[in-house]
Design goal:
With about 325 residues, this protein is α/β, with parallel strands linked by helices. It contains 11 helices and 8 strands.
């Protein structure tokens, strides 16, 4: 009888310990998960203020940086002039989750069927990619540049990291097709915008979408957050990302593990041009290589030496745009 009582006491202590561990784990998940959701994907979070704390940072030669900055400034000035002098119209769409997203259409030739949708990056805005629109406009394309959800003029509390945005992109595609049923649409994305167009590539887009240009996309939301957890905080992906995943699923309504460009490109049938800088310390170049390798549709790749994150178009602008328009010419 004493032995049985002793066993019951041990079992009771064991169950209490297990319960305490569960409670502690739940509290830790709530605290840590909420911190990283607020930091990384909340509209007002500080995820855009990047400070690398380990050896992931890649140094770029001073002269190269000067060239990049010079070209960046020149492109900005030309793009501002183009935007001011090109007929444009504010447009908006309503998403599946009832958000209003806003953008601008620029008309280089209203009789043309050629269109490009240009998506900006993480914690960025349309101004960051407007110079790309200028180059497409010069080739006779009409241009649509949206503000992605939770940025600039568009509604939304949480950044979609490409996964929610791929559904938003379909709304923009449909808007153009409603305006012109014969539209021939190119998708161009930079960074998170690049992840968006790749995530959309595996979803059976309308036949009007003829090509995808991606610049500096990550393989998946999980992968980029794991990379940044190490770079910014020197933290392992487990258990931090697992806690982040639980809270993000509840608050932002998407699964950062499921949100994979790598898995989506395996299903793509649309031609894709991959562009990346080999000195990118935000989205490592190996992610481009993995995405390229996984793609079964027609594909080409351009790696720009000495270019950092989304800096290829400033490091070698002529190479960058020549490659894009040669690619688009070939696939027609």
């Amino acid at each position: 009888m004493k032995e049985k009582s002793k066993n019951n006491k041990v079992l009771k202590i064991f169950l209490i310990i297990i319960l305490l561990l569960i409670i502690i784990s739940a509290i830790a998940t709530i605290v840590v998960g909420n911190y990283f959701v607020n930091y990384a994907i909340l509209r007002t979070g500080n995820g855009g203020d990047r400070e690398v704390k380990n050896a992931q940072v890649i140094e770029i030669d001073d002269e190269v940086e000067k060239t990049i900055e010079k070209n960046r400034q020149r492109e900005k000035e030309l793009a501002e002039k183009w935007a001011k002098n090109t007929k444009n119209e504010k447009v908006e769409v309503k998403t599946k989750d009832k958000l209003i997203l806003r953008g601008t259409e620029y008309f280089s030739n209203e009789q043309s069927n050629n269109w490009v949708i240009i998506l900006h990056g993480y914690h960025s805005n349309p101004d960051s990619v407007i110079s790309i629109g200028k180059h497409f406009s010069e080739k006779g394309y009409n241009v649509l540049i949206p503000s992605m959800r939770a940025s600039n003029e568009s509604d939304g509390e949480y950044i979609g990291m490409g996964w929610l945005d791929k559904e938003d992109l379909k709304c923009w595609i449909n808007l153009i097709i409603e305006q012109n049923k014969d539209a021939q649409i190119v998708l161009h994305g930079s960074s998170m915008g690049a992840a968006t167009v790749l995530m959309a590539s595996g979803d059976g887009l309308p036949g009007n979408v003829k090509a995808i240009i991606e610049d500096s996309a990550y393989t998946s939301v999980w992968d980029i957050f794991a990379s940044e957890a190490k770079a910014r905080f020197n933290l392992p992906s487990f258990p931090v990302l697992n806690m982040f995943k639980v809270v993000a699923s509840m608050r932002a309504k998407y699964d950062i593990k499921e949100a994979s460009a790598l898995e989506q490109v395996k299903k793509a049938t649309i031609p894709i041009l991959f562009i990346h800088g080999n000195k990118d310390d935000f989205v490592p170049e190996y992610m481009c290589e993995e995405l390229y390798k996984a793609t079964k549709s027609k594909k080409e790749k351009l790696i720009i030496n000495e270019a950092g994150h989304t800096e290829s178009r400033y490091k070698e602008p002529e190479t960058y745009y020549t490659k894009i328009f040669e690619f688009l010419k070939v696939i027609k």
